[in-house]
Amino acid sequence: MILPIVAYGDPVLKKKAKDIPEDYPQLQELIDNMWETMYNAHGVGLAAPQIGKSIRLFLVDASPFSEDEDLTDEESEQLKTLKKAFINPQILEETGDEWAFNEGCLSIPEVREDVFRKPEITIEYFDENFNKKTETYDGLAARVIQHEYDHIEGILFTDKLSSLKKRLIKSKLQKISKGEIRIDYRMRFPKLKKAR
């Protein structure tokens, strides 16, 4: 089932998410719905807060990036095979010199900005069968994971921008939170308090 994606301005996007118990009700159904929702919106990642659930779960399918001709065969292969759910993840380490990449977000449509992140991460998480894993990723694979991980920490990519950049996109962000945008996937907009 395709779920509406929560738009910028909803408080759930700014909350630190809670761990999921192993017996979380209908977890597999939720994960299946999240995959369907993500693909319907042409995303490469989707975190539970983006569908209104403040739990530590996100999905990543970085295969669309694997076609980039600037990548090494190894990088391309890592991206092609990076399709998984991350449950209760913890980034253990981020290393290397920060580099910029133009990021976007399904909750913040039509806004793209350069974000600086470290190139290599080590992450510990549970897979869909609650098997514990510890893996290291680098380059674009690491970046996609870092972006989604930020969501479960209550951080949006726009929070990482300079104050000047934030001022430049402020009106766009206000339009998104009011639902004054056209997009080709379902969204849920914040219920704004009416002035008295």
Automatic annotation (TrEMBL):
The record's cofactor note says: Binds 1 Fe(2+) ion.
This entry's Enzyme Commission designation comes to 3.5.1.88
Tell me what reaction this enzyme catalyses: N-terminal N-formyl-L-methionyl-[peptide] + H2O = N-terminal L-methionyl-[peptide] + formate
Q: Which UniProt keywords apply?
A: Hydrolase, Iron, Metal-binding, Protein biosynthesis
Please name the GO terms that the record assigns under molecular function: peptide deformylase activity
**UniProt-listed InterPro entries:** Peptide_deformylase, Peptide_deformylase_sf
| Entry cofactors | Fe(2+)
Name the active site residues. Answer: 148
User: Which residues participate in Fe cation binding?
Assistant: 105, 147, 151
Name the job this protein performs: Removes the formyl group from the N-terminal Met of newly synthesized proteins. Requires at least a dipeptide for an efficient rate of reaction. N-terminal L-methionine is a prerequisite for activity but the enzyme has broad specificity at other positions.
Family in the record: Belongs to the polypeptide deformylase family.
Q: What is this protein called?
A: Peptide deformylase
* Name of the encoding gene: def
